[in-house]
Amino acid sequence: MGILNRNPKDLWTGVLFTVVGLAAVYFAQNHPIGNAMRMGPAYFPTMLGTLLVLIGIALVLRSFIRSGLPLDRFALGKVAWVVGSILLFGLLLRGMGLVIAIIVIVIVSAYASQKFRWPVAVALAVGIAISSAIVFIVLLGIPIPIIGTWIGG
Amino acid sequence: MDLFAGLWIGLQTALTPINMLYCLIGVFVGTLIGVLPGLGPAATVAMLLPASFVLPPVSSLIMLAGIYYGAQYGGSTTSILVNLPGEASSIVTCLDGYQMALKGRAGVALATAAICSFFAGTVTTIIIALFAPPLANVALTFGPAEYFSLMVLGLVCSVVLASGSLLKAIGMIVVGLLLGVIGTDVSSGAQRFTFGIPELMDGIGFVTVAMGMFGIGEIVLNLDHEGTTERKVHVLSSFMPTREDWKRMISPTLRGTLLGACLGILPGGGALVASFAAYSVEKKVSKYSSEFGKGAIEGVAAPESANNAGAQASFIPMLTLGIPTSPVMALMIGAMIIQGVQPGPAVMTEQPALFWGVIVSMWMGNLFLLVLNLPMIGLWVRLCMVPYHLLYPAILVFCSIGVFSLSNSQFDVYFLALFGFIGYVFAKLGCEPAPMLLALILGPMMEEYLRRAMLMSRGDPTVFLSRPISCVILIVAAAALVAALIPTIRNKREEAFQE
User: Fold this and answer.
1) Over the range B435-452, which residues count as b (16 or more CB within 10 Å of their CB) and which as e?
2) Mind listing the pLDDT tens digit of every residue in chain B (499 residues)?
3) Which of A57, A86, B287, B456 has a 20 to 30 A CA-CA distance from B343?
């Protein structure tokens, strides 16, 4: 077991925190920092970014000494289907309209499950699309086109 | 006298037909969500926030509160019937509740849960009415330094009572505070961390972050552990507890209520910790401790009264100080801000109808739960049998439409996806999302108070220690942090979260 594997959860959290902290400090410098009495827009983020870097370094160092649990397997495939389905929904909503966007998000996200079966997913998608169109557009009056502009709505 | 005048205003507000209706909708939807597996109260409140914006502030808060304690109750129902806790706070109810169901006493267990919750809710409503006004009066004398310290305390407590590593939780708070910085700086108008993207000028919406991290992140995690969970439902017999049951219920309920009310006030505590504590206390003091785990009615009564009392007591710091003690309370604060109500001690004097209306509505909501739920158990049972792979696409649709409708922009939908991914990564790294969300909401306020306090003290940071109230608050915060580091308490804490 190498030193890097002793506590991977803490190690990678530490690395992540350090990177985010450094980025915050770096981008904050686009603004005046002011002084303790009259704080400029950069003061608070610089303070926070520095603190985050310190915490990140502490986590990295601690991970070399104290061992911890191994990292769980990342189910990248499942994440990709679910997150991707939301992105597609956002992309299609205005252009294709609510009904098609919902059918896409339901089928794509349902694909992440082990129990995915085409007929069930399609039926579910159509059911959710119709009931959502009724609830959100007809009853709640949310301004989303049912049929989008790309297909002549 | 103030108390009765207040409660009277509350009754007048809560008992208007429209508010009663929203309270009813709230507890109904809450129970529904509590029964459905894999959807927590924080995700639910976040999902329904956009829908509540069209309501007047009082009605919207009454409905959101109803969702919260309705979800607690729904979670217990599934714990007892199918040994699946709908919510974290009803995990302990599984231990004895499900055993009672195996013995054919599911109906009695459900009735016990409902009655104890109602009792705890009634007592806690009175406790809130008694203690909130004096607390708010003290808070009225607070200056920027005190507010800043109070927020520090709130954040510290959220860390102490969160599960997992302290250092990581503190880091998550800083990440949350940094996310809060994004957008237009109120004092200078500077565009911070917006990278020229106009949609970021108003900052990152906490609703989007909450839905992404609690809702979407949870879905992916659940899919990770997708397995075949056998669910058996037990036939219901009689609901009526016997005379023996009634007698054995009384003192556990009283103890559970008291414990829940005390723990609920503490930031980060709330229903979850209260239910664990009440169960272990009851196991120690009860005459029937040998029956625990085998279907003791005390093992249902104590945690059920405690989690309900805890859930309600967590409204005290939220309503009086404007300090959220849990993610759900943080969302309620966010809802108030969007509704144009500045959270803090002034809410009680400036908006008495809102303050007392919400308090009285909680009692009313508990009554609804009692009357509504027992006859509807059949429906809840059928609902908790809905397979997860049919449920989660619907949740995704709901979240996406909800986020889109916040400001009618698909940009928010992309952010939902982004924070869903971030939430999943953080969960895999063992970082709790709750402190981060709390920090995101408090961040902009904290920065303002910090600036004002430092301006008034001419740049002298000792102002936070030289003002007595602020100093006391900071000492309490430091003590809480130190206490969490003491080995014995730390072990207890880990134990409590492992069970």
Assistant:
1) bbbbbbbbbbbbbbbbbb
2) 467 777 888 888 888 899 999 999 998 888 887 777 666 777 778 877 877 777 888 899 999 988 888 887 887 887 787 776 666 677 788 888 888 888 878 888 888 888 888 899 889 888 888 888 888 888 878 888 988 988 888 888 777 766 678 889 899 999 999 999 999 888 888 889 988 888 888 888 888 888 888 888 878 888 877 654 545 555 566 677 788 888 888 888 999 898 888 887 766 556 777 787 788 888 888 877 778 878 888 888 888 898 888 888 888 888 888 777 777 888 888 888 888 888 878 888 888 888 888 888 888 888 888 887 777 777 777 777 778 888 889 889 988 988 888 778 889 999 999 999 999 999 889 888 888 888 888 888 889 999 999 998 888 888 898 888 899 889 988 888 887 777 555 555 555 554 4
3) B456
Q: How far is CA B221 from CA A62, A119, B44, B55, B224, in A?
A: 27, 25, 17, 33, 5
* B396 vs A17, A35, A85: nearest CB: A85
| Contact (CB, 8 A) for B449 and B148 | yes
Window 20-39 of A, Cβ < 8 Å to B: 20-21, 24, 27-28, 31-32, 35-39
Say if the Cβ atoms of B224 and A75 lie within 8 Å: yes
Compute the CA torsion angle B13, B133, B335, B312 (nearest 10 deg).
Answer: -90
pTM: 0.83
| Contact state of A9 with B429 under an 8 Å Cβ cutoff | yes
A144: chain B residues, CB-CB within 8 Å? 401, 404-405
Touching check for B393 and chain A: CB below 8 Å? yes
> Which residue type is seen at B204?
I
Rounded (10°) CA dihedral B36, B41, B42, B47: 60
Instruction: Give dist(CA B24, CA B304) in Å, integer.
Output: 21
User: What is the C-alpha separation between B313 and B258, in angstroms, rounded?
Assistant: 10
Q: Identify from B172, B416, B429, B460 which residue to disrupt to test chain A contact, counting A C-beta atoms within 10 A and taking the largest count.
A: B429
The helix/strand/coil state of A34 is strand
Phi first, then psi: give them for residue B183, nearest 5 degrees.
Answer: 120, -165
Rounded Cα–Cα distance for residues B139 and A70 (Å): 46
- The position carrying tokens 């008694």 is B130
Which residues, 6 or more positions from B163, have their beta carbon under 8 angstroms from its beta carbon? Answer: B432, B493, B494, B497
Q: Which residue has the tokens 């102490």?
A: B160
B454 touches chain A (CB under 8 A): yes
Q: By the CB < 8 Å criterion, does B351 face chain A?
A: no
Hey, is the C-beta of A57 within 8 angstroms of any chain B C-beta? no
Tell me whether A115 touches chain B (CB under 8 Å).
yes
User: CB–CB of B438/B324 below 8 Å?
Assistant: yes
Burial status of residue A117 (CB atoms within 10 A of its CB: 0-12, 13-18, 19 or more): exposed
